[in-house]
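Researcher: I'd like a structural prediction for the single chain below. Treat it as a standalone chain; there are no partners to consider.
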Amino acid sequence: MMIRHLLTLMLFFVAGYVLASEVKLSLETGRVKIKKQGNIRFISHSDPLNPLIVELELGEQILTGKNTRATIKMRGKEEEIRLRVDTLFQVNSLEPNQTEVEMPTGKARFKIKRKLNRKKKRKRQFNVRTVTALIGVRGTEFVMGTSGASTSLLTLDGSVEMAAAAAPQIKVEVSVGQASKMEVGKAPTPPITVPPALQSSIVESDSSETFGEVSFPPAQDLEEAVAEQKEKEEKEKEEQKEEKQEE
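Model: Treating it as a single chain, here is the predicted structure.
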């Protein structure tokens, strides 16, 4: 019994190490602050041709400084997030079927490759949480900026699902070349096509303020959107019930 218990503990720690080694920070230039449970470390580097590679643990918070170029790489190069300056980022979970990260503030460019889990025969999910939004990805490339009170994203390849953090059932699908915005107390704005020149500006800029140049359509109040969604679902249930009775 004792041997079995020790083996279980060994497997647990080995699995934890493997997961941790799958999350790496590539620091090209600048300074980052890494924090977890009161432990803080600062790392600086100034050779973009020879990036400094740092292994990260799950749950560590990364804060990028001024004039910093850093990339988070997970599962080799299957999931890459290029962090901009003044960005707070954290990897919470790295499971075979799902990756969970959060970005309370800042801006980043995400490149997520589609990967099929052969055992369960479904695509791995990649989810991003901000203060206001939940972002669902199954293989795509997009740029996202968040200030805490609002989250904006631009899809560069594939499609991205943006939902309200306070009401995940309220969501929109943002396709290639489109952008959407999510604010506190509001539903996601209807996706809008962004001109190529403005797309380039958003991609290249360190600041999330470039999203302010997008003419987002008005957003519906979140409470109103939730009420409408509930009414729609109840109506569909009633129609299905009537169809069964007719049979």
